[in-house]
Amino acid sequence: MKHPACTTTGVGRGFTLIELVVALAITGILLVMAVPVLNEQIDKRRLMAVVDAIYGDMQYARSEAIRNNQNVQISFSGGASWCYGMILGATACDCSVMASGTGYCALKRVDYLDFQKVSIPASAGISFSSNKTGFDPVRGVALSTGHVIMESALGKQAQVNLALLGRISVCAPAGVGLTGTYPAC
């Protein structure tokens, strides 16, 4: 007669030390393979968030120009401490001014602290004349054409374009862009 603890039902049987070590090793290998992919996805989402914000804010600036029957000026500043801001009227604002006063972007102001680990490349990141553009209140056309390029910490880029008739678009620069997310520039 068999002892009750030695039945084939598996009751009372656990994992061996070798089985636990193998399971932990496989789990560790899977984690090591998943971390770079996860980091790339986080980097991509950060870049998409700031590009979508700029796109939406440009749409907002255009609608505010028409609604208020005044020009809306958008000013950009590049580099790691980048910013952009908007103001109603004919004169541009300075997006580096943090509090209300002379040059403050009263309509809206956004900077690198809102979207960390994303930057505007210091050279050729902004193609607008004098780093500013805006919208005419009569037809919502652009005051100047150009683009702003945003770059992620891993070197991926996306470009927000403004055409003369006020059309705003996003594209991926060749070689470094978010291919598959935005059309090629």
SSE-based structural type? alpha+beta
Tell me the major beta sheet.
4 strands, antiparallel
Q: How far is the first residue's CA from the last residue's CA? A: 80 Å
The poorly predicted ranges are none
Q: Describe the global form.
A: elongated
Portion of residues within helices: 25-40%
Largest sheet: spatial strand order: 3-2-1-5
* Number of E-type strands: 8
Number of helices: 1
Rg from Cα? 26 Å
- How much of the sequence lies in strands comes to 15-25%
Mean pLDDT: 89
Q: What series of H and E elements makes up the topology?
A: HEEEEEEEE
Family: Belongs to the GSP H family.
Pfam family, one: GspH
Subcellular location: Cell inner membrane
Domain General secretion pathway GspH: 52-163
Could you characterize the architecture of this molecule?
- InterPro entries: N_methyl_site, Pilin-like, T2SS_GspH.
- This is Type II secretion system protein H.
- It is a single-pass membrane protein.
- The structure is a single chain.
- It contains one helix and eight strands, in the order H-E-E-E-E-E-E-E-E.
- It is α+β, with helices and mostly antiparallel strands.
- The strands form two sheets. It has a four-stranded antiparallel β-sheet, covered by helices on one side.
- The protein is elongated.
- The relative contact order is 0.14.
